[in-house]
Sequence to fold (948 residues):
Amino acid sequence: MAGLTLASPSAERRGYSPWRETWRRYRRHRPAVVSAVLLLLLIAAVVIGPFIWRVSISDIDVVAGLQGPSLAHPFGTDDLGQDLLARMIYGGRISLAVGLAAMLVSVFVGTLIGALAGMSRGPLGYALMWLTDLFLSLPQLPLLLMLIYLFRDGLKAVFGPEGGIFILIVLVIGGLRWMPVARLVRAQFLSLREKEFVEAARALGASPVRQVVRHILPNALGPVIIAGTIDVAAAIIAESTLSFLGLGFPPDTPTWGRILYDAKDFLDIGPHWALFPGGAIFIAVVAINFIGDGLRDALDARKVI
Amino acid sequence: MSQYILRRLMIAIPSLLGISVVLFVVLALAPGDPFSELATNPNVPPEVQAALRTKFGLDDPIYLRYLHWLVAMAQGDWGFSFVSRINVDTLILQRLPTTLYVVGSSQLLALLIAIPVGVYAATRPYSLFDQLANTFAFIGFSLPTFFTGILFILVFSVKLDWLPFVYTDLPGSGIKWALEMIRQAIMPVMVLGLFQAASMTRFVRSAMLDVIRLDYVTTARAKGLGQAKVIVKHVMRNAMIPVVTLIALQMPAVFGGAIVTEQIFRIPGIGSLLISSILANDTPVVMAVTFVFACLVVLFNLIADVLYGWLDPRISFR
Amino acid sequence: MALLDIKGLKTHFSTDAGILQAVDGVDISINRGETLCVVGESGCGKTVTAMSILKLIAMPPGRIVEGEIMFEGRDLVPLTSRELDDIRAKEIGFIFQEPMTSLNPVLTIGEQIAESLRRHEPVTKKQALERTVEMLKLVQIPNAAGRVHHYPHQFSGGMRQRVMIAMALACRPKLVIADEPTTALDVTIQAQILDLLQDMKERFGMAVMLITHAMGVVAETAQRVVVMYAGKVVEEAPVDELFGNPRHPYTQGLIRSIPRIDLDAAHKTRLEAIGGSVPILINPPPGCRFASRCKHAMSICTEREPRLREIAPGHRIACHLGDAS
Fold:
């Protein structure tokens, strides 16, 4: 096969915007397109939902408790007779917001550490990579639980029960998931540092910061976007797990994981109560993962340059 | 080879130390004094509180406190659980075998599914089988373990009434007891094993596809060895090298899944111990269990390194 | 009867951009005990032709569209991969271009040579090992009995290529296909490997199909030469005839691109390169595929494809130049 060389046909298509090309390739990944639509619908539902479905999330009606789906309650009710659709719309906002915010934290920390490790040739680079490997081998969930156990009360006092938990969960999940991004960014740095155009920029006297911002980071963008997408899904799972273990948001904040936690003791009489939030988490996560897969095809992580 | 293992051990020690520093710093940074909780706990006698304060040297500078704590941990002096009223190390040793049994069986199940499926899918890329396997793998690792656990209970316990959904540490012996032990482990092991199998299948498939197009595979085919032998002896053997590393990187997630699974099925392992200790504010147990999980991850990484050296002759000669 | 007779072979690859006609109607024949060189630039279809013989190309995307490959009177094209397994290594051995990547890194070289023997001959494990050591001695690997248990990474590039030769010859095949066996090696090692190949050929009396892009190698080793360009044979001749009387403009260009160190400074001419490069073989234009790079191109060259015709005994060219018809 060695003798077989194909001239790249892309040379003739110059003038095409790279984003258009990316979109063209993304569109070919059918599940990713379906997932993107699904995720947009989900986001629209939790954002616009409360304006259309104006049922309170905390109206208690014990008589109407544990009812299956009906016209009055499309998703049924929980043991206190609270409307599940309203609760899921409310909880979805928090679950998705946690996912996005935690992703931003992890991408920020990861890019920072990866860039520092990639730029420094001395002991700092080695130390940061050792730290990255160390964090990769930390048992995340136990640590997450321990951090929340230790800091929950302190933050609750400062930011209120919901705000405190939100900040804590976002920081902790984001702070424990930056390692893949750091590795990707550093790898990009190492491979790009010696490439001609960076050398040229350096020869022209570009400052290190300018080199990084103008020349290296844009090239690392593809893999980082993909890793960030996966991070959103992972953060949603992490938040749901915490809430499911009863250690996330307080009971009056019905995130999807929290609803599932409350429902798990009523599986025999009210299975709908667990199926709706569980299904929502699953759909959100599967959709985000498929979008990540589609982006991987579209941005082709291996051919960044 | 033995020199290689020794070198790996030397690398494992700093990471254990690093993890212990992280844990200790977290504890030290925590607002308030975690042990002050004990003061309000009527179960704790005052003389134990005083003993604790001296033992942990709460008024010493932080590095001294860390050293004291580390020495105590190294000596197996892990503190006292105020809820269970026994030593923490005894408590953990009671619970650890159950966790290892469930995690071990599920890893085995995952390997038994992932290797054949991943290998077969890679030999027929983009075939119907490959696409099905890919889709299932994708769904599998997008399904959080707490939701699969609930689905399994709904189907197999509530609807079909085949399997018990509460794991009990029954005493006894004999065949009937052994069968019951297996029966009650089926659901937790399936939940954890299928979750692991999903990501492993993807690792195996992509590693196989990376190797299958390499020159030495063509060399092997040119020898007329036959498809099966080429795949097993030449492709799989090499593809397993990156797979081992990827599986090792998954270990923290495996133990995370174990905690959730133990909680759902009420398995008396160290994962459910961690949750109950957190809910009961039993700080020494929380610290110790977290540290044990960290040690387990490091241990499995070490095993992966040894496997890696065994699979790849280039490593052990370096 | 020729040992191997390839007639009208077409091997195509389906790519995103269209059908790539990598090999498009190639005729090559090799007699018993003969050394045939196949020359041409990278990308002209030499390797694909060779790999097609034992169906070692990736299928899909590759496909043998047309033609026959007669080996000892039997057509290999319709055979399944399983049926070909009896011919691979046993009848036709293969030496690859990259000794650094063509050996399996996790198996000892002994295992890799012995597995070929064990597959094709009724030998015990012990006999296979003995034969392997014997082969390693033949290809002049020092301390063969000890080295047989070593892994590929413990050998240099030249030594690995010796191992590859031992592996290809282990079952005493009637034909050995060597695909650029020296390209990846240091110049000093190249000569040693070619000598070794020549040695082995004399000892075992097999035919050799040597694929190369180096005209120097051709001059040293070949009895007959086939020149390929863009998936087609453009000229074929005995080696002396080819160097003495090259007829195709492409062959002439290749020969002029050989550096001459035997001439003194006064007679030295400027080294000539052939302008341009091998065209992409997806929907190639009609006519001669070399026309766009040919100094002598005429109008007919872009209209009609030249057929391979015999101009002297054993000397055939595909060119409109001097074509009476």
The first helix of chain A runs from residue 18 to 27. Residues 163 and 187 of chain A are 36 Å apart (CA to CA).
